[in-house]
UniProtKB/TrEMBL annotation:
Pathway in which this enzyme or protein is active: Metabolic intermediate biosynthesis; chorismate biosynthesis; chorismate from D-erythrose 4-phosphate and phosphoenolpyruvate: step 3/7
Protein name: 3-dehydroquinate dehydratase
Active-site residue numbers: Y22, H100
Site (Transition state stabilizer): R17
Catalytic activity field: 3-dehydroquinate = 3-dehydroshikimate + H2O
BP GO terms, sorted: amino acid biosynthetic process; aromatic amino acid family biosynthetic process; chorismate biosynthetic process; quinate catabolic process
Chain coiled-coil ranges: none
Length: 142
């Protein structure tokens, strides 16, 4: 089975982006971790990143079309703004799992609302890259 791992705006800059908050791992490093764990779990990882909201929505629709097991989504700042991503998660039957490197609930108040989270079956936040691995392990149980 395939698991889509969708990454939103600014996550292409991981490694150099605010390392005190997000750490030093790059998105490629995280993809490697997920591929290793995925192999053990019998899951194929389809990892993508876009700075454009509509691409993320199209990929959620694609996850449905190809019958993905789950969508792991770190929507970046769209987490806190995008009703369209919320609707996309509701529009597909593939279960969506929210992922964050940091813990938005301990940061600025504007990060305390998660629209995407309201449409997800689980959330993993505040564990750095390990948030993704925990989310993948949860996807394997679905
Ligand atoms: C983030 C948290 C968001 O609030 C922020 O806008 C990001 C990254 C995280 O992974 O910690 O871009 O999703």
């Amino acid at each position: 089975a395939t698991v889509f791992v969708l990454n939103g705006p600014n996550l292409n800059l991981l490694g150099t982006r605010e390392p005190a908050i997000y750490g030093s791992a790059t998105l490629d490093d995280i993809a490697g971790m997920l591929e290793d764990r995925g192999r053990e779990l019998g899951l194929v990882i389809d990892m993508r990143q876009s700075n454009h909201e509509g691409h993320l929505i199209d990929w959620m629709h694609e996850a449905q079309a190809v019958g993905a097991r789950a969508v792991l989504i770190n929507a970046g700042a769209y987490t806190h703004t995008s009703i369209a991503l919320h609707d996309a998660a509701k529009a597909i039957t593939v279960p969506c799992i929210e992922v964050h490197l940091s813990d938005p609930l301990t940061r600025e108040p504007f990060r305390h609302v998660s629209y995407i989270g309201m449409a997800c079956v689980a959330e993993f936040r505040g564990h750095g890259p390990q948030s993704y691995v925990l989310a993948l392990e949860h996807a394997a149980t679905l």
